[in-house]
Amino acid sequence: MKRSLIASIVAGVTVMVWLVIFAATTSVPAAAPQSAAGQAKTAASGPLPKTPWDGKPDLTGTWGPATAGPGPNHDARSPTNTERRDRGLALDALYQPWAREKSRALAYLDDPRYHCGPYGFPKYINIPDYFLLQIVQAPKETLVFTEYIYSGYRTITTDGSPHPKKIVPSFFGDSVGHWEGETLVVDVTGFNGKIWLPGVAAPPPGGRGRGQNAGEPEGGGFMTSDALHEVERWRLLDADTLEYEATVEDPKVLTGPWTTPKSLLKRAPAGVVINEALCLDPEDLAHMKATEKKK
Amino acid sequence: MTHKAFCGLVVSLGLVAAALPRAHHSFAVNFDRDKPIVVTAVVTGVKWENPHTLIYVDVKDKDGKVEKWTFESFPPGVLYRKGLRQDRLKPGGEVTLKGFQARDGSNFANVSVASFPDGKSFCVQFPGASAPVGDNAYDGCTGGDTGQYR
Amino acid sequence: MGKAFGAALLGASVAVLAFFTFASSVPAAAQQSGGARTATPAKAVPRASWDGKPDLTGVWQGASLNARAYGLAELERLYQPSAKEKMKALTEKDDPIRQCSVYGYPRRIAKSFPIQLVQAAEVVVVLDNRPHIYRYIPTDGRKHTEDVFPTYQGDSVGRWDGDTLVVDVTTFNGKIWLGGVEDHPTPDSSGGWITSDALHLVERWHLLDADTLEYQATVEDPRVLTGPWTTPKIVLKRAPIRKLEEEGHCIPADIDWVSPAAR
Questions:
Q1: CB-nearest partner of A81 from B25, B126, B137
Q2: Smallest Cβ distance to C118: which of A35, A136, A275?
Q3: For the domain bounded by B22-123, which CATH number is listed?
Q4: Domains identified in chain C, total number
Q5: Statement: residue A210 has pLDDT above 50
Q6: What residue ranges of chain C have pLDDT lower than 70?
């Protein structure tokens, strides 16, 4: 009885040892041909590219706003001026009264970019300028790169690690992502309170239009606090279209959550990568400082 | 080590900023859509920097008098991405610049289109530079190259 | 009891002081022998599942190397006389790192602040927070981009040479330094360790084991140097942190102006 028990145990252990050795020395089949095809580089839309290590949609690529100019990337679904204005008013309505007053009084030079601060997210997604977004998806993290006003990057942890217990507040916050089906859901916290949300606050009565489109209100900025918390949803609609949406809460300045409209990004042509940008020559605040002193 | 300790000594930009014309990225705040200008000029210098590339030109008026102008554009990487590079935009070269003048009336403008003697032109227009078309923002240049890639 | 304790404390302090002095003056390669101090054997190099290449992903931290350990004595001998004149005129305030730009490579590797590498299917990325910046190193076999604007960090392309990632970097803007004004490998050293836009950097990144990353770089700059300079082999150890812990964005201090409304 004892002998057969020992023999069983030895056999079981031997099998386990071989299994462990096998697992440790054999890499997961890489499906190599697929990984090359998965990095869809041409403009032709096709099936979603997938990462070879886990079969998730691969967001890797360089992405441009779909709404920049009437060129090939212009998207017919870009918002009208009326829609833009209405969105600004809707967000403005969510501000707590004290915060609304302060936000409307902010000067354009209070915009973080004039202090070498980034647009941050969600605002960077919607800049209709010529600035791009680049994503690198790796097994345990997904990286997001920007190029305005400097080379800001985000590290989205995707290996199941939670937010660190102690987060040093930052412009981009701390990002933790997980997949819900084919959507990458990213939870962001640990902001430093210095970024603005997209859009502009409503003008005071009689205020004239400014900004990018006639009819868009002038003045102000949608400030945030260090209590800002965001949940983003990143999803490939097809091989060349990336959809982004974010729900934002900020109990210190807002009365409730705000969800951005869905934004579309289009894949840039092959070979395009974003640029290094260092903020060394910021908009001339020194000039404004000097001007203010003279007053 | 704190940010401040790390960043160390401050570079005084005061003198430099005073010498430079105002440089702002928000088009509508500083440039006037109702003051379009077109100049054919000789480039005297180009400051390829982030966040703005500045193009210094000598413009000859009808009487042959030279006026100095500065045109502002996107960061160098963005211009390169469109194909507008140092081989074209360089001191001594001729360029036709279409853009919008600064609101303060100074010899400072924002570039929309840069065209060259060989016929090639580049649309590098800032959003908000064009008047809306109906209820839609219109961010392109008329004719020529559009979009952010070459 | 007090005396014995005091003596022990003094002895321990001397030992610690001696250790750090010794550790900083010994060439970096010799620090590899530190592995022998640990009881656990070195772990095998992890490999990327999609192509079997060594996986450099992780947060890596080296010792802070003094000028001699970093090989600057040899670099000093290579500066052309005209470049040496320019060097001597430079002070700490001219150092690009004091103006919110970057250390650049290989200078960054000689610092003890960690860096983070992330390896994906066709790229290796280097993430930094001293200051906040990234390097994008494609490993898909592409050549240098012909018409990219010169930058502080240059244009990097990587390829695997066996188990070593070889990174070739060109198209620099000439503004980074190879060392600081504080780096004095010899008594006569002074000034900033300038480069030009002819700088060409070749780096070799190589995992010795799962927790040890070895870096070596060769620098050529025909406008300022008479010949190539190769750093010693510099060792980084895997740091026990998941990711870089501060954003590290550098803001030029004189742009703190805010409107009255924002105060």
A1: B137
A2: A136
A3: 2.40.50.1010
A4: 1
A5: no
A6: 1-40, 253-263
Q: What is the C-alpha radius of gyration for chain B, rounded to an integer number of angstroms?
A: 17
Distance CA C60, CA C64 (A): 13
**Contact between A63 and A225 (Cβ < 8 Å):** no
The reply to whether residue C254 touches residue B85, judged by beta carbons under 8 angstroms, is no
Residue C262 lies in a domain: no
CA angle A31, A36, A37 (to 5 degrees): 95
Q: Which position has the higher pLDDT, A8 or A127?
A: A127
Owning domain of residue C51: 11-243
Q: Which one of B1, B2, B4, B11 makes the best mutation probe of the C interface by having the most chain C beta carbons within 10 Å?
A: B11
CA distances for B78 relative to A90, A121, A275, A294, B72, angstroms:
33, 21, 8, 36, 13
- Taking chain A, what is the end-to-end CA distance rounded to the nearest angstrom? 100
Partner-chain contact A39 C121, CB within 8 Å:
yes
**How high does pLDDT run on average in chain B?**
77
Residue C91 in domain: yes
Strand A141-145, strand A153-157: pairing: antiparallel
Both structure tokens of C256: 């703190």
Rounded distance, CA C132 to CA C147, Å? Answer: 25
- For the stretch C164-188, pLDDT in tens is 999 999 999 999 999 999 999 999 8
Look up the CATH number of the domain holding residue C92: 2.40.128.20
Which residue, among A233, A223, A182, A222, has the nearest Cα to A87 in the 3D structure?
A: A222
User: Does residue C103 fall inside a structural domain?
Assistant: yes
A79: pLDDT confidence band, cut at 50, 70 and 90? low
Mean local confidence (pLDDT), B79-83: 87
Question: CA A130 to CA B75: how far, in whole Å?
Answer: 10
Smallest CA-to-CA distance from C26 within C237, C211, C192, C233 is with C233
CATH among 2.40.128.20, 3.40.50.2300, 3.40.720.10, 3.30.565.10 for A47-279: 2.40.128.20
Q: B47: part of which helix (H) or strand (E)?
A: strand B31-48
For residues A106 and A197, what is the distance between their CA atoms, to the nearest angstrom? 13
Predicted confidence (pLDDT) at residue B18 exceeds the cutoff of 90: no
Q: Where are the domains of chain A?
A: 47-279
Question: Would you call C243 exposed, middle or buried from its count of C-beta atoms within 10 A (0-12, 13-18, 19+)?
Answer: buried
pLDDT at A263: 86
Predicted local distance difference test score (pLDDT) of residue B21: 35
pLDDT bracket for residue A248 (50, 70, 90): very high
